[in-house]
From TrEMBL:
Entries under SUPFAM superfamilies matching the protein: TPR-like (SSF48452)
InterPro entries: SusD_RagB_dom (IPR012944), TPR-like_helical_dom_sf (IPR011990)
Domain of life, per lineage: Bacteria
Main location: membrane
Location of the RagB/SusD domain: 258-533
Family designation: Belongs to the SusD family.
Protein name (Swiss-Prot/TrEMBL): RagB/SusD family nutrient uptake outer membrane protein
UniProt-annotated location(s): Cell outer membrane
UniProt keywords, alphabetically: Cell outer membrane, Membrane, Signal
One Pfam family in the UniProt entry: SusD_RagB
Lineage, top ranks: Bacteria, Pseudomonadati, Bacteroidota, Cytophagia, Cytophagales
């Protein structure tokens, strides 16, 4: 009886926010389908399916840029946001984060199964509209399963509304799920309109869903598929790199570029205020900046030189010189993405060692690392309660670097792969007389050399955009990079190079898959705990 009540509760909660969103007031209505009457109802359930999981600007646990705090790129200072504990390894099967994320995904999969199963009910004048919205709902369901399998591996898998019998079934192996998802994703993409929508552009179209499928093909080592999808997106000629990398993450270019493919725009969250300044920015002369997630020294050191060389292998300066002066001869993406000690903010120099300054590194709302992300942090938002940013969840630069990485991993590096890397580097402002990867410095590169280059290129191109944790998991380097202390700004003290230390971190081999929370194991008898927990 207890399990039956739990199933009923989950089913009920999965429909609550949809019913509220539809705002129907018929006192005689007794079921979901009685609220689900017309084209606008269909559009609204699609909208709510984005807002509740992917585009709510007020939920720190799911905000894309907050995900950096799970990785070696950044430190998240609030434990309740769930990123800090995953990064430092203080986790087990009772850690609340895993219950939160798993229940969130499963609740919305239940909703999506209900929406898809009933998508033929609402009245529409044009059946192509129904096809579009139903396909978007199916695409969102696939996206959820991509994320679930990437985190937990083998999970419950249902493409129909589940009943009590279904809820008791064993989990489905990850590879079996993916073998169904990837062909299904391509079928869904073919049914979606090819062009970006004039309104609701955050909703999947053919190429934005291809791009999301491409991402997870790469994540799951399906390199031929990832390269093919990337090439199809390139050949569509619908997207291009925005010419100014820094402005792409400021108001100047955030909503006027043709680079963003998957949108997180104001329309996707009902024009609510965005809070990226509050979340990422410094506690300045107002109480606005909270420094919730801040860059680490390991990310700062990952920015190679202006010539495209690792700072440890540059003949122009020593490693110590680069550590003490991050702005020295650096990839321009560093100054466009990060700010710290000695840089200017709102016309004033940042001094993290001055205890009278609100940006003093030991203050609660200051950066413990002495660095802040500059992406999505506009000085225009410093003295107002919220902003109006349009964010991108997937950019054309990722398509280019995905093609290159997939070809590198297949050891089939063609001219287009090299050109793709060059396009990203050239836009960033590197000195292409040296950084051109078709040049003599790269003539004798081994496959391992190319792997290290493309991995670092992804790291600095997408720093602050929430991709790093997924990358270190899929590359299986988390047990290397997350077993290092989280360090911050580096300076010379009494003749010694000293870095601010924030915390020790730990990552065990079994942490590559997340645990099912003990509550989930009790409620779902078909679940099996992942090894090591």
């Amino acid at each position: 009886m207890k399990k039956l009540l739990i199933i009923i509760f989950i089913a009920g909660t999965s429909l609550t926010s949809c019913v509220e969103l539809l705002d129907k007031t018929d006192p005689t209505a007794t079921s979901f389908v009685e609220f689900f009457n017309d084209e606008e109802d269909l559009r609204r359930v699609v909208y709510s399916s984005y807002l509740d999981v992917f585009t709510n600007p007020g939920v720190h646990q799911t905000l894309f840029y907050m995900q950096e705090g799970k990785s070696d790129n950044a430190y998240s200072r609030v434990d309740g946001h769930h990123h800090q504990r995953i990064a430092n390894g203080n986790i087990n099967s009772t850690t609340q984060a895993f219950l939160y994320y798993y229940e969130l995904q499963m609740k919305h999969l239940g909703r999506l199964n209900t929406f898809v199963a009933n998508a033929d009910i609402p009245y529409v004048e044009d059946e192509s509209v129904r096809t579009k919205y139903k396909s978007i709902l199916e695409a969102l369901r696939v996206w959820h399963y991509f994320r679930l399998t990437f985190r937990w591996g083998d999970v419950p898998f249902h493409l129909e509304p589940a009943d009590l019998v279904d809820a008791r079934q064993p989990i489905t192996p990850k590879d079996e799920i993916l073998n169904q998802l990837f062909p299904l994703a391509e079928d869904i993409a073919a049914r979606l309109p090819a062009d970006e929508y004039t309104s609701d552009k955050y909703m999947f179209n053919r190429y934005s869903f291809k791009a999301m499928t491409m991402r997870f093909a790469l994540y799951n080592e399906r390199y031929e598929l990832a390269a093919r999808l990337a090439k199809e997106i390139m050949d569509s000629n619908k997207y291009e790199l925005y010419p100014d990398y820094g402005d792409l993450f400021q108001y100047e270019g955030a909503s006027t570029n043709n680079e963003v493919i998957v949108h997180f725009d104001r329309q996707s969250h009902g024009n609510r205020a965005t809070n990226s300044f509050r979340d990422l920015g410094p506690h300045y002369r107002t109480g606005n900046g909270q420094s919730y997630v801040v860059p680490l020294k390991s990310l700062v050191d990952a920015y190679w030189t202006l010539q495209g060389r690792p700072i440890a292998n540059c003949p122009l300066h020593t490693m110590e010189e680069y550590e003490l002066n991050p702005n020295l001869n650096r990839d321009p993406r560093y100054e466009q993405s990060i700010m710290g000690q000695g840089d200017d903010f709102y016309g004033e120099p940042i001094d993290i060692y001055n205890s009278n300054n609100p940006m003093y590194f030991e203050n609660q709302r200051a950066s413990k690392s002495g660095y802040w992300f500059k992406k999505y942090v506009s000085e225009a938002d410093a003295f107002r309660s919220g902003g109006n940013f349009d964010f991108g969840l997937l950019r054309y630069a990722e398509v280019l670097l995905t093609y290159a990485e997939a070809k590198i991993m297949m050891n089939d590096i063609d001219d287009l792969a090299l050109e793709s890397i060059n396009l990203v580097r050239e836009r960033a402002g590197l000195d292409m007389t040296v950084a051109d990867v078709t040049g003599p410095e790269y003539a004798n590169f081994s496959q391992e050399d190319w792997i290290q280059l493309i991995r670092n290129e992804r790291r600095v191109e997408f720093a602050g955009e929430g991709l790093r944790y997924d990358d270190i998991i899929r590359w299986e380097i988390a047990d290397e990079v997350l077993n290092q202390p989280a360090l911050g700004h580096t300076r010379m003290v009494d003749g010694e190079v000293v870095s601010l230390k924030i915390e020790d971190r730990s990552f065990q081999p079994h942490n590559y898959r997340w645990p099912f929370h003990e509550n989930s194991l009790r409620v779902e008898p078909g679940l099996e705990q992942n090894p090591g927990y």
